[in-house]
Design brief:
Helix content: 25-40%
Protein name: 2-polyprenyl-6-methoxyphenol hydroxylase-like FAD-dependent oxidoreductase
CATH class: Alpha Beta
Organism: Arthrobacter ginsengisoli
Pfam family, one: FAD_binding_3
Strand content: 25-35%
Order of helices and strands: EHEEHHEEEEHEEHEEEEHHEEEHHHH
Distance between the termini: 37 Å
Strand order of the largest sheet: 6-5-11-12-13-10-14
Shape: globular
Keywords: Monooxygenase, Oxidoreductase
InterPro entries: FAD-bd (IPR002938), FAD-dep_Monooxygenase_BioMet (IPR050493), FAD/NAD-bd_sf (IPR036188)
């Protein structure tokens, strides 16, 4: 029986632990905290990620806990519709609910170790599922693999009321973005992003909210309404970090999954989806092939696909947060909308 250490008990780590065959692997999940994140946020589960959830055995429960996503209306900063983007079959689910369901799916033989991982565990395989600041990636891939700070601040939160009638969608202004979408139990999930010097760590959420209200004030009534209802207690404010291209997802008895492998800007809404796909792909290969062969096959299947999405997400961030090119961008989007253009589903 191979000994396998999963560093990180988030979406990728729990999905991997839930899918691995306990008859083949002695698994320990190393997690820094024992409780789910205090601020609730929402995730879009695209069809490929839903297939991964089905493989783990929790897709029906995710559907029950989640909400309909529908399409996405893309607007300019004042709320005028630029185009309607299709999102067929997408499910919205809160991160906290998804983590609870994944945690419950982990087999009883899997051991849990709580606390900060200062040095890599001794195992036949160490899985880096520990996010953009992965100690596994830094320890094995070196200092050049450290996470990179983007110029963008991201705020996310939930308000305890439904989406304003006719006000949902994503608002692309000059150098700033705001999103409004349904959340479970008739609530609203919102998010905002723009360039900011706050942080990178220890960001005061109340200060970030005040800054966000000032930046978006008076442009779109529904954005003003959502921000007026937002509270520091229900808001998360973070600088956006990304992960450089590592060259390979497997090296020297270690393998990377999720944000540790391909942490990207949130603009495509694919980070959690790709983490789930990584985890199920790796688990299925490990369950059925010798360890070295499984790792090589995982690298072939996931490296180029997920890195392409990382690059595309960065390009989308530059487009959505354009400043000098914003009038041209909006004109092209209006033209696409009049012609019935719909961005493809990922």
């Amino acid at each position: 029986m191979d000994v396998l250490s999963v560093v990180g008990g988030g979406i990728a780590g729990l999905a991997l632990a839930a899918r691995l065959d306990p008859r083949r692997f002695q698994v320990t999940v190393h997690e820094r905290r024992e409780e789910p994140p205090p601020v609730e946020t929402s995730l879009a589960m695209w069809p490929e990620a839903q297939r991964a959830l089905d493989a783990v055995g929790i897709l029906p429960a995710v559907r029950t806990a989640g909400s309909g996503f529908g399409g996405m209306v893309l607007r300019d900063g004042s709320g005028n519709v630029l185009l309607n983007a299709g999102a067929p079959g997408v499910i919205g689910v809160s991160r906290a609910a998804l983590l609870r369901l994944l945690d419950a799916a982990v087999p009883a033989p899997v051991a849990r170790a709580y606390g900060t991982v200062a040095a890599l565990p001794r195992s036949d395989l160490v899985v880096g599922a520990d996010g953009v600041h992965s100690i596994v990636r830094r320890s094995v891939w070196g200092e050049r693999a450290r996470a990179r700070l983007s110029p963008y601040l991201a705020l996310r939160g939930i308000i305890e009321e439904p989406v304003p009638s006719g006000g949902g969608g994503e608002y692309w202004g000059r150098g700033q973005l705001f999103g409004i979408t349904p959340a479970a139990r008739g609530r609203t999930y919102w998010y905002a992003s723009y360039r900011s010097g706050l942080g990178p760590g220890g960001i005061n959420v109340e200060e970030a909210l005040d800054l966000t209200r000032a930046r978006f004030s008076g442009r779109a009534a529904d954005v003003d309404h959502v921000l007026a209802a937002a509270t520091p207690r229900g808001t998360l404010a973070q600088r956006v970090w990304t992960v450089p291209y590592p060259g390979s997802y497997q090296r020297d008895g270690a393998v990377l999954v999720g944000d540790a492998a391909h942490g990207m800007t949130p603009n495509l809404g694919r980070g959690a989806c790709e983490a789930l796909i990584d985890a199920v792909t790796l688990a299925d290969l490990l369950n059925t092939r010798p360890l070295p062969e499984a790792l090589r096959a995982y690298n072939r299947r996931r490296l180029l696909r997920s890195q392409a999405l990382r690059v595309a997400s960065s390009a989308m961030a530059r487009l959505a947060l354009a400043e000098n090119a914003q009038p041209l961008r909006d004109g092209l989007l209006r033209l696409a909308g009049r012609r019935g253009g719909r961005p493809g589903a990922g």
